[in-house]
Structure to design on (788 residues):
């Protein structure tokens, strides 16, 4: 509370100063980066040229790799110092040192699962070359911070100080990226409650995995309060780790399908919206390294992009890499059973320093399977241990990133992916020889299938992981006859794949729509790809909407809504009322379909499993007499159209209360917006300084996937975080754009200058050649030199 009051008072003072003296921008601008002239920095071996284009994207030219990564640390710190600091504190479980009591529960959870310890574990296992890259980057961050004492606005509002950057801090944020792209411990808590409520057959139908639970849970897990935990994690811009709402796309076409005869590669990975963007565009050039694309502030190298020989893109491969184990503890809670023996629980003390309050010290208990969650997840009855690939043993993903950046061909690419372990990802590939490919990369644990579906006994030994699936046994495709490859978080595994993969696949609507558009032309261009990225065609809607239009009703307002639906083109464009009516009605369909079976709490949880209930509804629309349509709370036996009519009436009543009884004004973008929120933007009036809100189109089923959760309204929580279109071999024709802007400084011209283009899906040039970057910098460049 004290922190909130302090923030509010400081914000008001800041605004009054800005209004009264017109000096707000000038005052904040003292922290803006130097972009021309000379900057001398201790630790450089030689000069580095930094050319910034019209979007603020820096293109770095160094004479050594050491200086290149040092300079990348400098420019990241110039533009995103506070974001980098915030993110490392998330991974280290040290947010409360900045934000006080409101983030204590976030820190407790992350300290318990051990992301800070896992980051150190990863660093200790790195090669000498990788450690040298991390050290050069960290030295660049610290060199800049020591020569530029004016800290960004957030530090001034929070009265916080900068601490030197360490190489392990880079891996702390990488650990949180692994968390945000991993799966599926929260489903393992939801599934047993669902099975208990509706039985294994109906649970399998609702979760669309086609598998009834083979080994029943013999211990009650209780009713865990994940809503409380999710609220805590959102303060760090994190989710529970479930992939059920992912919307990432990537596709690549060979020269046989393009107008130039060269491959084209597209990628738009989806993440939660935040301010500033999670990505930072950059070009890196030095002997032995030429690469451009999207980097992560706080980490060296490029994560997605192209070099002089290859291009690549990624989408989440939602493999099950997390399991929960029920442990048998001794009466005093200090020991656990393992195959007939009593073993001591490992314990560690964690202390959270809290700004404006007393430090919080607590104990974490761990079995061989991982930390016990009971002290940080309220409502658990049985002792549950959390086992996750990314904390159980060192991960080598940073080594893989370095390999991707310098790969010259398919063999180099695959060699890099041998080291890509967590988070699992789908990779699309193209190179200058004309080769295109797809690889599913990442560690897939080998274990009995039911062990990935429900918490299982930890004392028997039968549910242990038995290694991971080798890369050469994972799905791969190279130069297919049809000349294209598509991945959209859908299931790439054949039906006879011998290992359990998980069940968290996206419904196939996006992948199907992408294939439709690719197959419509054999002379595709980058402009065509950009049109595809804009596409908001709904494939589920044509099945539901005619049924809604045909429903009999005497209500004149409902009839007008049906008229809007009857003329709707199934495009989820923000300015179309038919799109708004469809989305709201669909949500009520799911609620009326399952309210009697699930009850209020489980129904709210299930509404978050969007990919599953989309497929469920699609199936049941073809089965008007399916038992699920019947509302068992009434004496009548309802059929499909009875439930659809209830949903349509409720949707009209809900929309009418908000916007009046005028269905032609029930535009989708009146409901569907996206807020790029800053970690301290929840405090008013700071939201006006830090946050940005836009109207949106699309949903989770459209190629331009602006996702939301039906249980939480229609505010987007999953968006295209970065878009790229790469013209392979004619690199200078490529395009890219992330969400907000290159700068993390409020009032800076590049703080939010990408938002309008992002909303319209207009990409910016992905400059590559020396001539392009020279012209784009308009003769202005910053020269970094060794300090004398």
């Amino acid at each position: 509370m004290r922190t909130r009051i302090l923030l509010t008072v400081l914000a008001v003072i800041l605004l009054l100063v800005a209004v009264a003296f017109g000096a707000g921008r000038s005052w904040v601008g003292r922290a803006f980066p130097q972009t021309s002239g000379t900057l001398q920095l201790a630790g450089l071996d030689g000069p580095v040229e930094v050319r910034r284009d019209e979007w603020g994207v820096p293109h770095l030219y160094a004479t050594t790799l050491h200086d290149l990564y040092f300079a990348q640390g400098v420019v990241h710190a110039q533009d995103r110092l506070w974001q980098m600091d915030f993110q490392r504190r998330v991974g280290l479980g040290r947010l409360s040192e900045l934000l006080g009591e409101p983030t204590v529960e976030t820190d407790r959870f992350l300290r318990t699962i051990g992301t800070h310890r896992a980051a150190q574990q990863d660093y200790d296992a790195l090669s000498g070359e990788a450690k040298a890259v991390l050290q050069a980057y960290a030295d660049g961050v610290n060199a800049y911070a020591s020569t530029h004492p004016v800290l960004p606005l957030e530090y001034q509002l929070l009265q916080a100080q900068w601490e030197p950057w360490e190489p392990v801090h880079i891996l702390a944020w990488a650990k949180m990226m692994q968390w945000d792209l991993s799966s599926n411990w929260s489903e393992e808590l939801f599934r047993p409650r669902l099975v208990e409520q509706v039985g294994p057959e109906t649970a399998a139908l609702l979760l669309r995995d086609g598998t009834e639970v083979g080994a029943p849970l013999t211990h009650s897990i209780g009713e865990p309060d994940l809503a409380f935990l999710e609220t805590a994690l959102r303060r760090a811009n994190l989710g529970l780790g479930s992939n059920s709402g992912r919307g990432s796309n990537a596709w690549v076409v060979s020269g046989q399908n393009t107008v130039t005869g060269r491959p084209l590669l597209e990628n738009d990975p989806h993440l939660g919206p935040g301010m500033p963007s999670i990505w930072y565009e950059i070009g890196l050039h030095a002997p032995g390294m030429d690469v451009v694309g999207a980097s992560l502030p706080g980490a060296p190298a490029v994560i997605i992009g192209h070099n002089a020989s290859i291009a690549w893109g990624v989408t989440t491969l939602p493999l099950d890499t997390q399991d929960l184990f029920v442990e048998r503890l001794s009466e005093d809670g200090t020991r656990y059973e393992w195959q007939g023996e009593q073993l001591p629980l490992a314990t560690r003390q964690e202390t959270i320093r809290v700004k404006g309050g007393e430090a919080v010290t607590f104990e974490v208990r761990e079995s061989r399977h991982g930390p016990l969650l009971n002290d940080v997840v309220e409502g658990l009855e049985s002792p549950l241990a959390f086992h996750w690939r990314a904390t159980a043993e060192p991960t080598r993903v940073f080594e893989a990133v370095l390999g991707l950046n310098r790969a010259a061909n398919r063999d180099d690419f695959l060699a890099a992916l041998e080291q890509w372990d967590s988070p699992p990802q789908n990779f699309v590939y193209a190179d200058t020889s004309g080769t295109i490919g797809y690889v599913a990369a990442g560690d897939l644990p080998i274990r009995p299938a039911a062990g990935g579906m429900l918490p299982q006994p930890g004392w028997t030994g039968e549910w242990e992981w038995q290694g991971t699936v080798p890369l050469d046994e994972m799905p791969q495709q190279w130069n297919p006859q049809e000349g294209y490859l598509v991945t959209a978080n859908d299931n790439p595994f054949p039906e006879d794949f011998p290992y359990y993969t998980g069940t968290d696949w996206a419904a196939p609507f996006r992948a199907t729509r992408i294939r439709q558009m690719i197959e419509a032309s054999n002379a595709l261009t980058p402009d065509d790809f950009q049109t595809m990225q804009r596409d908001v065609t709904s494939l589920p809607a044509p099945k539901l909407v005619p049924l809604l239009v045909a429903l009999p009703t005497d209500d004149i307002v409902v009839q007008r809504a049906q008229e809007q639906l009857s003329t709707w083109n199934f495009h989820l464009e923000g300015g179309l009322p038919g799109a708004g009516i469809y989305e709201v009605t669909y949500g009520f369909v799911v609620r009326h379909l399952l309210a009697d079976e699930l009850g209020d709490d489980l129904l709210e949880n299930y509404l978050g499993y969007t990919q599953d209930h989309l497929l469920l509804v699609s199936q049941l629309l073809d089965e008007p007499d399916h038992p699920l349509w019947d509302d068992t709370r009434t004496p009548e036996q309802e059929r499909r159209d009875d439930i659809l009519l209830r949903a349509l009436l409720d949707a009209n009543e809900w929309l009418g209360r908000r916007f009046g009884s005028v269905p032609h004004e029930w535009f989708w973008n009146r409901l569907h917006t996206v807020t790029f929120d800053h970690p301290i933007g929840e405090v008013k009036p700071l939201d006006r300084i830090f946050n940005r809100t836009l109207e949106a189109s699309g949903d989770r089923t459209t190629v331009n996937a602006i996702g939301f959760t039906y249980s939480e309204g229609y505010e987007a929580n999953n968006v295209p975080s970065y878009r790229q279109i790469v013209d392979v071999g004619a690199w200078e024709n490529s395009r890219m754009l992330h969400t907000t802007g290159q700068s993390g400084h409020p009032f800076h011209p590049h703080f939010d200058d990408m938002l309008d283009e992002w909303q319209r899906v207009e990409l910016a040039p992905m400059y590559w050649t020396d001539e392009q970057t020279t012209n784009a910098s308009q003769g202005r460049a910053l020269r970094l030199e060794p300090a004398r």
